[in-house]
Specification:
By secondary structure, the protein is an alpha/beta fold. It is built from 13 helices and nine strands.
Length: about 280
Amino acid sequence: MTHKEALDILSGLGISARKRWGQNFLCDESVVKQIVEAARISPGSSVLEIGPGIGAVTDKLVQTAAQTLAIEIDPVLAGYLNDRFSDNETCRILNRDFLDVQPSTVIENIGMPGTVISNLPYNQMTPIIYKLIEDYPDADTMVFMVEEDACDRIFASPSTKSYGALSVITSAYGKKEKLFNVPSNCFYPSPHTNSTVVRFSGNEGQRALVPGYVNFVREAMSLRRKTLLNVMNSNPDRVMNSEKTKAFLENRGFQITARAETLTASDFAELFELLRTDI
């Protein structure tokens, strides 16, 4: 698909790209091919695509013979995709905001997805990733297109400016890889920054921690200037075991005044397990 083809589709539908939904449509066939190849899809497997837009990636997914559910928030584009893929029995289009879609709806359509693909809108990237990790922990592979600065947050190290809950929670899912960069001119309209395609590969041992883990990390990282102990004890609805937390910090060589941003993803996982009876 070229920029002109993308523009022609939108013009034919009587719409333009909408900023409120972060719409920048991928128009480079070689990038589309790389994304689908990175997802390592097998014929007959189940794929969840979030934000298919004008269907550049969806078209390639259909060619893999995978059972595909594409969830599109834009009603006009969802209608266009329904018409475009109406003759394909392996592809279903759902006009919904993904953040409002229950896992049961996805499972009713394609079963539990083994693969997730999305060109993530920057303004909704974090809640979408959190929801995916919480609701679909059994997915083997997740491939995302993210803006460059968002990529920095995903791969940040402890005690750095970009390090936060997103860095920790994505590590809990499994292995993270930066695959390749995508210039802004590969999209229509062109965004103000380049993008990066990343892949998460699920790790069974770590994913066992998912129930309750996302909220635990988000709360711990919510007040970066407070000590970990103070953050843990600041929620009146949750009784944290201070002695366990203190012992944890001391046993791993941390000061009692340590902030959450100094802990690694492994540290968070161990602390979560230690406090599970108190959470």
